[in-house]
Amino acid sequence: MSIEVRVPTLGESVTEATVATWFKQPGDSVAVDEMLCELETDKVTVEVPSPAAGTLGEIVAAEGETVGVDALLATLSEGEGAAPAAKPEAKAEAAPEASGGGEAVDVMVPALGESVTEATVSTWFKKAGDTVAQDEMLCELETDKVSVEVPAPAAGVLSEILAGEGDTVEAGGKLAILTAGEGAAASAPAAAPAPQAAAPASSTGKDVEDAPSAKKLMAEKGIDPANVQGTGKDGRIMKEDVIKAASGAAAAATAPAPAPAPAAAPRAPSPAEDAAREERVKMTRLRQTIARRLKDAQNTAAILTTYNEVDMTEVMALRNQYKDAFEKKHGVRLGFMSFFTKACCHALREVPEVNAEIDGQEIVYKNFVHMGIAAGTPQGLVVPVIRDADQMSFADLEKAIAEKGKRARDGKLSMAEMQGGTFTISNGGVYGSLMSSPILNPPQSGILGMHKIQERPMVINGEIKIRPMMYLALSYDHRIVDGKGAVTFLVRVKEALEDPRRLLMDL
């Protein structure tokens, strides 16, 4: 029986995708739900699973082709080809029997977070035949949102690695086979020295796990963790710490060398020597998505930025007056983001084109505000969306912002939580930025950039006074927003922040 493999629903307002990668070729046996290919849209990467077990027939849409929703991708022959696909699994199950009398334990892909169905094996810290302790890190997986470390489920010997570095694995899939119990001693005579090898790590007095990239680099360079000063949380050793320690050791080794003769001219390093000091790291999926979307925004929209400055005196005074009572009643701290969100919602009602978007030959005006709050994470910039922000109170906004920020840092945001925004606020001031020009978050037409609050001398009623000032930047799509509308929007935000009572009076 022939089954059609078609393009699934691609998400809100997305009508087409590009075939990025085929994981299977015609004639290959596939299991039900096994990934056949990967599609890329301007918002998200979509994987297409096999609708049934069988044999992949004809590939209709090749890599690089653009396809619409429900377009035919390939055909699948159900039934006959299903049996061969089970052979690798049978081999994996049979392998532990040869390793000794110990119990075979499967090392599985752990839960990867909401809406994340697959990951890439980035690094194996152990190889087949190595002795491992329970909860010792075996490998590191990388997803679009977060890196996941996989610990050993039991003490024993790593018998077989089923997914090598660079392989894509599904949530709940099998990574390796571990021989526990008696089989551990029979398979690896080197198991006895393992406690001694672990001694340097325990002698540091830390009970935190060092960064996987740092451990890998220390192993490559033969650096003792005891000689590296960790700068991460709770003394965790990061990759930068290892690089610093390695460069310090190299400098110490070369220090006693005699000075070169005065007549010797400095020798320029060769390209090969420069290349040896370079480090190439593959971009994460999240970073690739960020890069693609930012470039698409520049190529598509007519981005222009207008600037203003706001005196934060009144907002800071109001916050200082009520922050303790606010936190006591609502259980959340009163920050500046709720003031800016309220001010933007207020201004968007007067200048609705900043809250609109272009769809083909039409302008879509939104009669609601789904506010995107840009958040920096170790993996990259993400923009969780607070829906119907214009209907929320200060307390509701602060709670939502805090909750979305925590989920972003933990890598637990779903794609649904990052879609549907109508306007975005980006706060570069938390990193010390004094002035910047933010890039639009398509298909939105406006983004407000907040910056560092800095005291500056200002002329107030003919007198020079020191005031806490902040530069504001509004980047907007000039195809839909005129200069008058952009300036008006920014002035309304400035007025609301310099006199917060206007927000209460809806002025």
From TrEMBL:
Signal peptide: none annotated. Keywords: Acyltransferase, Lipoyl, Transferase, Tricarboxylic acid cycle. SUPFAM superfamilies: CoA-dependent acyltransferases, Peripheral subunit-binding domain of 2-oxo acid dehydrogenase complex, Single hybrid motif. Residues 189-203, 264-273 have a biased composition (Low complexity). Pfam families: 2-oxoacid_dh, Biotin_lipoyl, E3_binding. Pathway: Amino-acid degradation; L-lysine degradation via saccharopine pathway; glutaryl-CoA from L-lysine: step 6/6. It comes from the Bacteria. It catalyses: N(6)-[(R)-dihydrolipoyl]-L-lysyl-[protein] + succinyl-CoA = N(6)-[(R)-S(8)-succinyldihydrolipoyl]-L-lysyl-[protein] + CoA. Residues 209-246 form the Peripheral subunit-binding (PSBD) domain. Residues 2-77, 104-179 form the Lipoyl-binding domain. InterPro entries: 2-oxoacid_dehydrogenase (IPR050537), 2-oxoacid_DH_actylTfrase (IPR001078), Biotin_lipoyl (IPR000089), CAT-like_dom_sf (IPR023213), E3-bd_dom_sf (IPR036625), PSBD (IPR004167), Single_hybrid_motif (IPR011053), SucB (IPR006255). Residues 83-102, 189-212, 257-279 are annotated as: Disordered. Its cofactor is (R)-lipoate. Its EC number is 2.3.1.61. E2 component of the 2-oxoglutarate dehydrogenase (OGDH) complex which catalyzes the second step in the conversion of 2-oxoglutarate to succinyl-CoA and CO(2). Belongs to the 2-oxoacid dehydrogenase family. This is Dihydrolipoyllysine-residue succinyltransferase component of 2-oxoglutarate dehydrogenase complex. It comes from [Roseibacterium] beibuensis. The gene is odhB.
